[in-house]
Automatic annotation (TrEMBL), chain B:
Record keywords: Antiport, Cell membrane, Ion transport, Membrane, Sodium, Sodium transport, Transmembrane, Transmembrane helix, Transport
Ranges for domain Sodium/hydrogen exchanger regulatory region: 522-604
Gene name in the database record: slc9a2
Family statement drawn from the similarity comment of this UniProt entry: Belongs to the monovalent cation:proton antiporter 1 (CPA1) transporter (TC 2.A.36) family.
Annotated localization: Cell membrane
Residue ranges, annotated region (Disordered): 624-649, 664-711
Stored InterPro entries: Cation/H_exchanger_CPA1, Cation/H_exchanger_TM, NaH_exchanger, NHE_CaM-bd
Keyword set includes Lipid biosynthesis: no
GO-annotated cellular components: plasma membrane
Transmembrane helix as UniProt keyword: yes
Name used for this protein in its record: Sodium/hydrogen exchanger
Membrane topology: Multi-pass membrane protein
Upper taxonomic lineage: Eukaryota, Metazoa, Chordata, Craniata, Vertebrata
Any one GO MF annotation of this record: sodium:proton antiporter activity
Amino acid sequence: MGASQTRSEHKHQHLADETGFSLEQVKNLHKRFQQLSGNEETIRELLDSVPALANNPIRKQIIEAFFDKRNQHHDEVGTCEEIGFEQFLMVMSHFRPPTLKTTVEEKEAMRREKLRFLFNMHDTDNDGTITLAEYRKVVEELLSKSGDIGQEAAKAIADAAMLEVASTNVPHMAPEDFYEGITFEHFEQILKGLEMETRMHIRFLDVGTTTMACGKSTS
Amino acid sequence: DGVTAFPDAEKANMPVFTMDYPRIQIPFEITMWVLLASFAKIGFHVYKKITVWVPESCLLITIGLIVGGIMHSVHEEPPAVLTSNVFFLYMLPPIVLDSGYFMPTRPFFENIGTVLWFAVVGTLWNSIGIGMSLFAICQIEAFGVQDINLQENLLFATIISAVDPVAVLSVFEDVSVNEQLYIVVFGECLFNDAVTVVLYNMFNFVAEMPVVEPVDVFLGVARFFVVGLGGMGFGILFGFTAAFTTRFTSKVREIEPLFIFMYSYLAYLVAELFAISSIMAIVTCALTMKYYVEENVSQRSCTTIRHVVKMLGCISETLIFFFLGVVTITTAHEWNWGYILFTLLFAFVWRGLGVLVLTQIINPFRTIPFNMKDQFGLAYGGLRGAISFALVFTLPDSIGRKQLFITATIAVILFTVFLQGISIRPLIEFINVRRTNRNLDTINVEVHCRLMEHTMAGIEDLCGQWSHFYWKDKFMKFNNRILRKILIRDNRAESSIVALYKKLELQNAMEILDTVSGDISAAPSIESLYEDKKSSKPKKKFLAPDLKNMHDILSKNMYKIRQRTVAYTNKHALPNESQSREILIRRHASIRRSLRPGSFQSSVSGQRSHCGRYRLEVLHDQETMSETAYPSRRSRFGQPSRSSSRAMMPLRRLDTLTEVHSVDMVDESSGSGGGTSRTNAGDPHTPVPTKVSRPMTPETGIAKRKRRSGLRPHLLQAGPWNPETTQHGTLCSGGLSGTRRCESVPGLFERTLQGLYNTTTCSYHPKTR
């Protein structure tokens, strides 16, 4: 018992260093992971274990993001069947907030990381561009809970958005060109004004969250 | 002055010319003062350079000083404006309403903890700190102010430490600091009123008492909660009432704006009645009301409301600063070097210390901590202004050194406004405080903001940890399910993306009108369109070949998404919608001119989507075309070849945002040569002839309001054009509204057009002007 305890401590420390979380946060997330996985090593199915996600319009994309290998920073593509704690943590690390100590380069890197995460959510076929179809799908999902918007509206909005990207990034398209899809650079470009690194983050608690987490898992 | 009556019984002749000044004196003087202040404002902008470096508040005070000097030399008394009631009941509410109404809500709620922290604790800290230090100074005999006791010092300190929204905003506006900083300072100003009111009343009460007991302190705390929460409660109550009222005002559109003003003012007055924080009441009222009211009222009422709010706020502010200057000269001063200088010093020092300490405490709770530069901005931006001034005038006369206090307050105000106001801009630029990118309100940004928020809410659920996204989500659900149903007339749960989309479409429509003429020659002809379709370019990314066409066409008519300024915009300007109207009017004229009967060719059949029964209107806003040219054109478009239209016209405009159906479109599409109609070929905005609910007669045809024509983002959809299946069109139009029925209430576009056009061609609302 003692040995495995220190082993997991080492592992946690290692993970903490790798992902940038603090040891406390890693431990908390580990507890949560164990709840979600039912105390097993890996998770296969996330949807059912978190009922609160049912109200989220893009829950599928979020769950898929966990199983997406591209978010693991190992330069792999494809999807995993199951994820272990390390992968879980890796995905969570995308949502770390910058601290006072983060340097400008680190902030830039964080920004790209977060943008990449969002990009991967769009780009489901992993060809490096977000095509119109993919964008449409995301918009449809986004609007699916906001009342009876309808597919047509979602399509129109997606079209408009694509057009925006086209017009801002490729200002002089000749009549024969067509805009294939949003590349990562274009994506960065259009979301330049959005202070990603300061807006896309979650406050990971340092204190023990067992009580809250318990409540969540039984709800 | 008046007609002098001769006491003798001589028969007085009919006076030809009489003057009765006293009768009109008060309104006349008010008008003159307002005009004078406004002229001053006009005058500033003559020299552009001045307003860059010197904030308007300083200039106004200077002018006030000059006028005050003039008045003093002719021994005139200025109107008692900055004293008590007139200020608090008439001049302050418009300013606060202005601030509250245009407050950017999303950043505000994200930072609300910090705002309240600084407002409450910060003000307390400042008051007590300054009060104590001044009391210590008073003990020094050399200054000769030993008669001021602790309570009076604390009272004075409370007045001095109130950061003033008027002064701060007018200075901070021009320096576009980052949003966090702006919101915190802004919020702090507005909400520290609660604390100031409580402390002021408490110390006022206490100053007259010989002994202070601990019970009183405890009561003071309790009173604070009553004041603060009561203010907010009243505000919310009146806000919801206003929203609810506007639900029923569709028949009385002319007086819609009135409700907004009356309810906010009522909130203010009722709060004053109970001596709770009236500023908080009116701000909360405005915040609550705005969201629901702007959906219920007509577009014109909305514009009117915004205009009037801005106007009143502007005038009040101008007058306040102006009178600050005037009264400075004309009051009797009591100067005491030591006391005043130390007041200045302490005000500055304690604010700086306060910001430092408070930020240290709250930074860990903030996700974007304030760095040192932000803190400097926070501390330096604490300007005092007219509220302090008015408060000091309302000090009871039982306080012996009231004149000294008045002088000291004026000194502090002038010092902060002038020195800090003028220097804040170069300093902020020098130390390079984080600036903001005034957000590009593009569809992409909005979509991704939403995406981000949902993702984060989802991840939070996964983590089992909640933060404000969770609450925001909950609130939005509550809002959609319950509040909107009660408070909004046509309740369609509309996502912000869709709302933004509508707005942007409208703007694009305007812009297109403007750019259309320039791009006519660049648009492709029908022939080339045809060829494109036949060409076999690899189109691997798109769903259908036609989508590629659409993009070509669209990209040709290049447009830039106009950078929209959000509500967090220049204080002295409205969110810019006025341009659109001018564009429309200009276009109106030029379109009429360019429409000539001979300009259309029948080779345009490809554009025709209906077999002659419907006409596609090329131009985006019908009304412009409506009156003149149609009848002559009708005969032209006799029989489009249906087959060709099917084959060549896979493009159908997606008319997703229309809610009203009967649309009559006049087809002006022409070949490659025509005038404005030209653009139709290259223009994806060929309006989809949606279901026409009545037969087209020339009159109704003209009279019909146009659907969303000419909106770029409406890409043309691939699909066989089937005149019978106009249900498609209906689907589109119904889709957005969420209700698939024909509504008689015009949609957003309609109302906007009604508002902007002022035409009488609409047969829907004859009364709407």
